[in-house]
Design brief:
It is a single chain. By secondary structure, this protein is mainly alpha-helical. It has one domain. The chain contains five helices and no strands. Helix 1 runs antiparallel to helix 2 and helix 3 runs antiparallel to helix 5. The protein is elongated and about 65 Å long.
Length: 161
């Protein structure tokens, strides 16, 4: 299980790097469009590409945020419980999160497949939507796996007591 957790964390780091480059590309595209617009030659499809790249940045960075415990957790009630009860609550919340994220990844993937079948493309650039949607589904799958591997700790705490 440790090897699997390391693999998923490495994958998460790489997706986070891709997300970072998507943000850099977004910034360069917006700045370039502003400069070229001043010269009377705006970049066609900037709005669409900014949407694609921003969606990628968010969808691919979620897992690494979970690795770093960067998501908000309101625990003031749980902190008042006994350590074993805390572990049970954390495990149950994590299990619900895994189920939700697995469902979300599946449904996002299904949505991408429907976009493949329909042949829907962006209006200005004619770029198909589905590759971006599949990447976001993959980001959610990795997020799900990160949360799943995080369930080991509360299980250890419950088993130890």
């Amino acid at each position: 299980m440790e090897a699997f957790a390391r693999l998923v964390q490495g994958l998460s780091r790489n997706l986070d790097r891709v997300a970072g480059w998507a943000l850099v590309a977004t910034m360069l595209l917006v700045v370039g469009n502003i400069i070229l617009r001043l010269l009377g030659r705006p970049i066609q499809g900037t709005y669409e590409w900014v949407g694609f790249l921003t969606a990628l940045a968010i969808g691919l960075a979620l897992a690494q945020c979970a690795v770093q415990d960067g998501h908000i957790a309101v625990t003031f009630l749980v902190d008042k419980l006994a350590p074993r009860a805390q572990a049970v609550v954390v495990f149950c919340g994590g299990a619900v999160s895994v189920a939700f994220l697995a469902f979300a990844a599946w449904e996002i993937g299904r949505y991408a497949t429907s976009m493949v079948r329909s042949g829907e493309v962006a209006m200005t650039t004619q770029v198909p939507f589905y590759p971006f949607i599949y990447l976001i589904a993959f980001g959610f799958l990795v997020f799900c796996l990160i949360v799943f591997t995080g369930l080991r700790e509360p299980i250890r705490k419950v088993a130890k007591k």
